[in-house]
Predict the 3D structure of the following.
Amino acid sequence: MRITGSQFALRTWLESDAVSLQKHANNVNISKYLFDRFPYPYQLSDAEKFISSKLDQDPVVNFAIEIDGEVAGGIGLELRQDVYRKTPLLGYWLSEQHWSKGIMPEAVKLVTDYAFENLDIICIVANAFGHNPKSMKVLEKAGFVRQGIIKQCAIKYDEVYDEHVFALHRK
């Protein structure tokens, strides 16, 4: 599967993506904004394990962000269960060398459009730590609306952060 953006493509993961994934993901300036399951340092074995977990997706909900022929980021939906079964959680990251080029708002919009067209969902939720205003701006540019702030609820690198909750509803 491939979805083409103006400067990039969103596509399914390939085993051959491991080297470029490790190269671009191995950055503390990326990992500090993500869940702890995104490690730093980011080793080649981390890349291989992640890609292996995404090879047989059905439905496809996690995409490599390909720029100039290599993986420079990732974006995906975490399908949830129980009362959240129709409300997936959005997550994304992009290589620091591609920040501030308008790539992420467009990628978020493409993924959310794809999700609402192809999945039985009613809403997409995304969270951003309080120390990450650029991610909040990405979400707002993609049409997400801030729903609220959960004060001092997340710990990353021994710092306690607020979590800003955003949502985009099916139209």
User: Anything to note?
Assistant: The longest helix spans residues 103-118. The radius of gyration is 15 Å.
